[in-house]
Specification:
The protein is an alpha+beta fold and 345 residues long. It has two domains: 2-252, 2-Layer Sandwich (Beta Polymerase, domain 2), CATH 3.30.460.20; 285-336. The protein is built from nine helices and seven strands, in the order ββαβααββββαααααα. It has a seven-stranded mixed beta sheet. Strand 4 (70-74) and strand 5 form a beta hairpin. Helix 6 runs antiparallel to helix 7 (220-284).
Length: 345
């Protein structure tokens, strides 16, 4: 879908979806334009490229995709590739792939190309409709508004990821459900996708803020630096979230190991209780002449002995704290240590 918006010298704004109008609009030197192309076809994209004189390589990048964030200086225009958070997510905390936004900056126009509806482009369109004077500024200022919108999209997503990690941390301690580990790795993959895109995207706006491109108004550099700061902060949040996920995974594995140790200790206690019982019943179950001595009293005493063994052993285990999560002799040993020795092995 093709949309072109122009600002005329008297300040009025006109909008068209007719691609044939682009040539006459560009012929009028006083016009400033914003052209947005959504889900472009090959013929439509090539027509836009011919109108502005874009290099075929940049047209190919827009059609084929798979580009990393970058800024390239061509003859008479700048070509940028930005990565944005998708507008619609099946899972609010998971990103399989970021959306690519292609931007052309010419002396009198800003051209945006994207495959799906993009929130930052929609915000720019609404802002121009509310404040038509924005379009009268040099295209570099429109680029700042677009880049600022792209950067701002990262923070709501990262807030949701931080809340998700906090929830998973709480669930790790209380539950050993394997689904928690699967969720942690899913969130970790999303953070890796973000980290791979945020680094180059940050460098794009760092280059724009250094005033290396004569095509951009020098005053725009300050605004680009602001976008760079936002992206740098987003990168720091991503790194912090990755560390939290790694720590939570370690906590999950440790909690699982502790639960396994508890189960093994309980099974060991049960086996230990039945060990003397097995010895007694095995001994008196042998088929010899003097066993069981053909005496009712011996039968009663043996039965009482068998019943007393588990009671005595359980009391003994409880006294030493072996039925607790942490044996009492460890707690007592920690309590007997000095303040500077506690927690050290």
């Amino acid at each position: 879908m093709f949309v072109a918006v122009r600002c005329q010298p008297e300040g009025s704004v006109e909008e068209t979806t007719d691609l044939a109008s682009l040539g006459p609009w560009l012929a009028e030197a006083q016009n400033r334009l914003w052209v947005d192309v959504a889900s472009p076809g090959v013929e439509e994209m090539e027509a836009v490229g011919r109108s502005f004189g874009f290099h075929p390589l940049t047209i190919e990048d827009c059609l084929h995709g798979g580009q990393r964030p970058k800024v390239e200086d061509y003859d008479g225009y700048l070509f940028l590739v930005l990565h944005a958070i998708p507008q619609q997510l099946e899972d609010p905390c998971v990103i399989e792939e970021l959306e690519e936004l292609y931007v052309f900056v010419t002396p009198r126009a800003l051209v945006t190309v994207h495959q799906r509806e993009n929130e930052s482009v929609s915000r720019l369109r609404d802002r121009i409709r509310k404040e038509p004077a924005r379009l009268a500024q040099p295209p570099g200022f429109l680029l700042h508004m677009l880049g600022d919108g792209v950067a701002d999209q990262y923070f709501p997503f990262l807030d949701r990821v931080e809340d998700e990690i906090d929830d998973l941390e709480a669930r790790v301690v209380s539950s050993g459900n394997p689904e928690i580990l699967d969720r942690l790795f899913t969130v970790k993959r999303s953070l890796i996708h973000l980290r791979k895109s945020l680094g180059p995207l940050r460098e794009v706006f760092n280059a724009l803020s250094r005033r290396d491109y004569p095509l951009l108004d020098p005053k725009v550099a300050l605004y680009m630096r602001d976008v760079y700061d936002h992206l740098a902060r987003a990168s720091e949040i991503v790194d912090a979230c990755r560390d939290l996920v790694a720590t939570t995974i370690e906590a999950y594995l440790m909690a699982t190991s502790n639960r396994l140790n508890d189960i093994v200790r309980q099974l060991t206690i049960i086996a230990t209780i039945f060990l003397p019982l097995t010895a007694v019943t095995g001994f008196f179950g042998m088929n010899f002449e003097h066993i069981p001595w053909n005496s009712p009293l011996a039968f009663i005493l043996t039965t009482l002995f068998i019943l007393a063994i588990p009671v005595v052993m359980l009391r003994w285990f409880r006294r030493w704290g072996w039925l607790e999560r942490e044996p009492s002799f460890i707690t007592k040993r920690e309590a007997n240590k000095g303040p500077g020795q506690r927690g050290s092995a």
